[in-house]
Model the fold of this input.
Amino acid sequence: MGKNLIQQKRGKGGPRYRSPGFKYAGKASYRQPSEKITSGKILDIIKCPGHTAPLIKVEYDDNETSLMIAPEGIKVGDEIKIGPENEIKPGNIASLKDLPEGTLVYNIENVPGDGGKVARSTGMFARIVFKSKKKIIVKLPSHKQKEFNPDCRATIGTIAGSGRLEKPFLKAGKKHYAMKARNKLWPITSAISMNSLSHPFGGTKSSHKGKPTQSSRNSPPGRKVGKIAPKRTGRKKR
Done:
């Protein structure tokens, strides 16, 4: 008998698994490159439930405003510079090709003009380790190195809010609401611990599956879990 698995319920788009985007302050990204925009002024520092890091509201030379991820050591009224030939100062935005090796950056673009996709969480930073005319190699917060287009933009500095993970969640309810604010599935429960209506493996004590873990290739979507049409199972005999 087929059952609606959690991934099927989430994909359906019901209110239980829908992101509360109406509570978010907005999208935090770079504006499209323009020669007219060379600086901006910080109007406010905002806490958005959809982002782990605080955001800053910036007003540009053309009186347009947008949201950006806040760096450490910045305050309301500070000015940020955009473009090449600016000083290495937290909050300034420049292309990777215009920054020297060893510079700490965050919110790096994967493709020039996409608004920033890499290193965006609290306390994160990446480091430029190698430069050439065709590529820039950046050491990411995961300590992996990745190549970027020299025209990709980044913000100088470290993201604010680095002490966020030092305070533990003392109650399950606090964790529940923190994950719900960003539409994250929590807790991650094993199939054998679920009720029988939630998963084919559920319905009995958690230490015993009660159902075979092999599934036919022609099984319905709610039953196709575990080992899908395995050629063989069990310990391999020598």
In short: The chain has a mean pLDDT of 89. The first strand starts at residue 39 and ends at 46. Helices lie at 6-12, 172-180. The radius of gyration is 24 Å.
